[in-house]
Design goal:
Length: 151
């Protein structure tokens, strides 16, 4: 990952946040299942979480592909592991996926905001050193960065 302040990273995190949030809400109405074409593994979005399931012996009865079904409308909130017969699965609640994305996204936007304020005040965007008496195309005497622009 590039530095948290870069615009690509900032927007990627924002888009990822939106995709996960929309998926989370979608699981209230739909269950989206993706059966992988190998190893009897399926991944699906259901009841507010991501489930990874595996048949230990026989194959998953469905052929590989993506399927959608209407959901029960229930939400699960906690990590869960279950084993029924030869089928085992792990449930990861969506908020657990969303929390680190939200935290990184918030930090990236926060850093961007801080840099914009520093630039507006004529400070070094990296360390906040007052560049008032320094030529604009010279290195910051405090941290050494050359490029004093917000990315
Ligand atoms: Zn600096």
């Amino acid at each position: 990952m590039k530095s948290l302040g870069s615009s690509g990273c900032r927007w990627s995190l924002t888009i990822l946040f939106l995709i996960v949030t929309i998926s989370w809400f979608a699981t209230k109405y739909w269950c989206i299942c993706w059966v992988l074409p190998y190893k009897h593994v399926a991944i699906w979005l259901e009841e507010g979480g991501i489930v990874v399931g595996e048949h230990l012996r026989e194959e998953i009865s469905r052929t590989a592909g993506v399927f959608a079904e209407t959901a029960s409308g229930d939400f699960e909130w906690w990590l869960d592991y279950s084993k029924v017969g030869s089928f085992r699965s792990i449930f990861v609640p969506m908020w657990l996926v969303l929390a680190p994305i939200a935290a990184c996204g918030f930090m990236a936007w926060w850093k961007h905001g801080v840099q914009r304020v520093r630039m507006a005040r004529g400070w070094c965007v990296n360390c906040g050193y007052d560049r008032a008496n320094i030529e604009s195309n010279s290195r910051c005497p405090e941290c050494g960065i050359m490029d004093n622009s917000v990315k």
